[in-house]
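Here is the promised in-class demo. Please do not try to memorize the tokens; focus on the logic of going from shape to residues.
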């Protein structure tokens, strides 16, 4: 009978060790998958809120550049004289002269 008792005890020890190891492996896997599932859930939740959020407001348009300061009358007269000389030399046509004159006078 002592041999039978020893065999039963050995079997109980082996089974208990296997159960303990198995339980530890299951806990580790459960923790690993729980962390992975939590990350997936957080990503899905963030994607949902991103879809629900209103679009950000459009940036305000840049202010228009201030108009160029008006040229002084002396500069305007000098430019007109130069244009007249170019026209007199035949470099500018009447249409080109009129266009440049209008540009200088701002009309």
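The designed amino acids, position by position:
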């Amino acid at each position: 009978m002592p041999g039978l008792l020893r065999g039963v005890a050995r079997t109980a020890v082996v089974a208990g060790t296997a159960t303990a190891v198995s339980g530890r492996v299951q806990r580790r896997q459960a923790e690993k998958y729980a962390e992975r599932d939590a990350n997936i859930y957080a990503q899905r939740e963030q994607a949902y809120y991103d879809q629900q959020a209103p679009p950000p407001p459009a940036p305000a348009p840049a202010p228009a550049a201030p108009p160029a300061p008006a040229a002084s009358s002396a500069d305007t007269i000098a430019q007109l004289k130069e244009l007249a000389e170019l026209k007199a030399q035949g470099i500018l046509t009447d249409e080109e002269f009129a266009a440049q004159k209008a540009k200088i006078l701002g009309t």
